[in-house]
Amino acid sequence: MNSADSPPFYLAINYRRRPGSNFWYMRAPLGKNGIDKLMKTAAQSAGLQGNFTNHTVRKTCISRLMDAEVPVNYVAQLSGHRTLKSLDSYKAASADHQRKMSLILSRSG
């Protein structure tokens, strides 16, 4: 199945739906601004503080999967990255890795 055949992950709201229709959505992507608004509303509703965007949530999910040592080809498949190299920008030392590095360096003296 290519991306043109796959359904959108977020569905756009159908504001022109007919009365009595059970379908509140359209088979179309929500769009970047709509997803940003959805993320901000969801974060506020959950009582989360900070700036949450679709990209920050995407980066967090990808980073956590990589920290959990999920094979990078699986992460790329899930996130829609076409190359494994494109995941390099998501690699960062987790808090646990930073603590371990700090312990190693503190013992080296």
Write the layout of secondary structure elements.
Layout: E1 11-13, E2 25-29, H1 32-45, H2 54-67, H3 72-79, H4 95-107
Question: Can you walk through the features of this model?
Answer:
The protein has helices at 32-45, 54-67, 72-79, 95-107; strands at residues 11-13, 25-29. The protein has a two-stranded antiparallel ribbon with strand order 1-2. The radius of gyration is 19 Å and the shape is elongated. It contains four helices and two strands; from the N terminus they run ββαααα. It is 45% helix and 7% strand. With 109 residues, the protein is mainly alpha-helical. It comes from Pocillopora meandrina. Residues 27-95 form the Tyr recombinase domain. InterPro entries: DNA_brk_join_enz (IPR011010), Integrase-like_cat_sf (IPR013762), Integrase_catalytic (IPR002104).
Bulk shape: elongated
> Can you give the helix content as a percent range?
40-55%
Report the average pLDDT across residues: 81
Uncertain residue segments: none
Count of separate DSSP helical elements:
4
Structural class: mainly alpha
What is the strand arrangement across the widest sheet? Answer: 1-2
| Helix/strand order, N-terminal first | EEHHHH
Outline of the structure:
The chain is mostly helical. The chain has helices spanning 32-45, 54-67, 72-79, 95-107; strands at residues 11-13, 25-29.
Describe the structure using short key phrases.
two-stranded antiparallel sheet; elongated; single chain; 109 residues; mainly alpha
